[in-house]
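User: Structure tokens for this complex, please. No commentary.
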Amino acid sequence: MSRWVVEQEEASIVLVGNFNPKIFHPEWFIRHELIEKWDYLSSEVINIPDLSRVELPSECLLEVLENRLIYRSTLKSNHLALKDLVTGTFSILSHTPVQQIGLNYSQTLKIPDKSDWLKFGLELAPTELWKKAAPYLDDFGDDEKSKIGLNSLKMELPRPDTHSGVVRAGITAKSIGTILFSINSHIDLQDGTASEMVSVVEDAWEDSLELSEVIINTIMKSHLED
Amino acid sequence: MSTYERYLKDETDLFFQEELVNPVSQTAYPETAGANVDQEGYTNQDYSRSTTYRPKMIPRSFGPNKAPHVEEIKQVWYGVVLGCNDTEIRVRLEDYTNEENSDEEVTLALEEIEEQDQSLIEVGALFFWHIGYRTGRNYPKERFSKIRFRRLAKWSDSELESAQELAKSYVANFEQYRSNHA
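Assistant:
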């Protein structure tokens, strides 16, 4: 039996640029056949000049601010299709300025054995230096000392492809026995156009999802399967 | 430029940005108030500088709902429709899970396709086919099969025009080659 369980996962595509949130109404998506007809009146829809938030069918969500747009989904069977939503949307809105792309994936993992959870944090961030750095800890008992531990960690990696940007991998202790991995594959666009963004997303989305899973699985296996 | 300075500049790291909005709910140990605290409880100088982005954020409370279940995907195919009639469709499947496997041609009953996707069925239409397990707090583990037709961007007039121009130039090149080697 595995020593960890996936509790939740989410993939998202974030665009930074200049958007008109008011455009992103359910009727707009239906009219352009980007999404099937659905009963959006029973979904949560906010559509005001500087904010749009639409619950799309099949556990997808769209959030648009004047400077940022996010497509996200918590169902793994939707993750590949997020790319089609983005490319479809911006093939229509082809004159939208877009400067940056975030291809993101996060996974919340439950580690049922508390000693495994503690070991995981200790291996990623050894506590010896911190114990030395805070001499008052010498006066503390073992119970108090055991509270020293990893809260969150961010690593920055070079991109695996030729796009300009970085890959950021983060680990956060969400609660006792639960950790959150978040991988942000960040890309800075050269021309800042929607058409450039569409071709980059077409090229990088699947590789980015795959890399995120490889990073998470490798770290988990190297710490908890030895 | 330091990592944090880059974070302040870039806004595509969704988790980090959401952390700025509602740090307390994301961390294992609640932050305590201190000298450098911003209105949401940060005591870390680097974080408190980031409050300039806060008005641009959608609060986490409006964030996505917790997924009703988690999917464990066992097999994914890319599919393309080769032909169809009133009751079934003929498709070619490319194995996405194991790309070394060769393509397969299979026939699917039309009723396998969700009603809202049936209007998309035509020769050349593309779809994803996922097979796996779903598990959730209120769900027993169950097997699922999901076929989702892709709603791809339509070709624009200018794209069609440039494709035709390219095709004409290929024809001209071939004609030239043939006449040179006749």
